[in-house]
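Notes from hallway chat w/ T.B., transcribed later so I don't forget. T.B. wanted the structure written out for a chain they're using in a teaching module, and asked if we could keep both sequence and structure tokens in one place. Agreed to drop them here.
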Amino acid sequence: MVIARNSDEGVAGRWLRQPTSPEISVRWFGAVGDGRDDTSAIVRALSAAARSPEKVIYFPPSARAYAIIQPIIITSHGISVRGGEGAVIEQRTWGPPVFDIYNADDVTISDLSLVMEGGDRSEIPTTTVGVNGPTYNAGVSSSGNRTIVRNVSVRGFLSGVKLTTYDRATRTYSGTRVGNIIEDVQVSEVAFGLLTTAQDDLVVTGLTGSYELFPYYPAPPHLIYMSGSSTTTAMTLSTNITIRDCEATNGRGGSAFQFGGIRGGRVTNCTADDCDSLLSTGDCRDMTFTRISSINDANLYAGSLAVPDDASSNIIFQDLTMEMSETNGNRLILLGGVDCRIENADLRVRRSTFPCGPDIAVVGERSSLRNIRISGIDSAGGSTGILYYEGSGHSLDAVEMAGMGIGIQVAANVRDSDLSYNPNLITVNPLLGAPARRVGINEPSAGVDPGIHVKRSERRVPYAFSGGIRVEAGSVSHALISASGPVQILDTRDQTAGMDLTFEITNITTRSLPIVWDRSFRFASPLLTVSPGATVSISFTRTADHIWQER
């Protein structure tokens, strides 16, 4: 390879370099790595690498950072940029990235630390006008296909890595990008660890670090932010994404993971530790989240885990673990969308007041909850564990709760749902007294059949009679009453249409005892007395018009 010689005193002309490796070293072109500007030398090395067979440019270890004052723009396909042990590139101009991969495919950036030195985060960089605005400020910005960013650390930019479809020549978003890979990237002092639009077959593995709000860019920050929507032309959808083994720590200002406009994907083994919230989706379909967890979850927003929109469907959460760090009344999970479900969840919540929460708010259609455990870990209060706020076709199976204010609450406009629970596995905070209960049902207006089917595991509860008996129908299937005086049966609490309830009344005296029923109980043949020493049994079914009808 014939290249211009480095400046040597008294030597002129050109010389022939016969490299012993396929890599083009930036040192050959005058880059030193001593903290002074190496931009021109790096650009020359990149140009030489683009003409070489292997297309590899190498940054050797250096005493200080390789400093640049402009972006290193890569427009040739197949370029590979690699750093030696401890190699650092430092961008000194506030706004542009270190590497701008502009419509170039099959580019790899690896084994480097990328640092933004200086810059006022309260001001929009003027150097980004016409090149995708302030989000151009990234360690690596790519509009190519099959970009690989591997074993790279990024500090101080708005985004660690930005994957975009933006064409700055036309100033529009165009098409999708395919096959990009982000692997073992660490970020700090960024608003977004990874910021993407319109990606197909994206694979992200081992992205870790913190995120924070940038004053000049007030949108909520995230470790991973995949933006997109089926209702806009600026940002098209992403398909078939794979994200695994990612961890956000000390995230402030937004959720750790934000997904928008995804059609098909798997997110596995991802954690938020000491972040403001965990995860949110919007306009996403056919996604599975497995082994997702939050530790020291501040839960500062409308749902630390949220599927808030009707446009999302078939979102599945499996093996979910969440633990609140802050005592507050915000809902922990907001489950909207259509055909979304949570399977195997362990939630630890801090609630200092009652009422508050709920811990899970269901607002979508055909939502499914199965094998859910909710533990109140603040002795002063109690939340509503699960609130079915609206929608139809919901199902609930295998739920365990402790320290609740209300275990399960069903609003009056919920329809056609099957809710199954074991009242023995739902305990309320005893300090809350009478307002606390296992199940609360808000029935619709008289004559409306909501189609709610509440299935309780059989629970036979003894009552020592001492005045009027009020049975909590949501937690009792058989009320066993030992009567020593006149029996008065008041209307029950927490009932819903279709619920069954049986009374077994035993007269433990030597005289007949009268039974007085609330007017909501209706009989084929009224049961008004119980003989001395006798036991009588009578069963009722709750109707849609608020009546207990004898069966």
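Follow-up for T.B.: The two ends are 96 Å apart (CA to CA). Might be a good example for the class.
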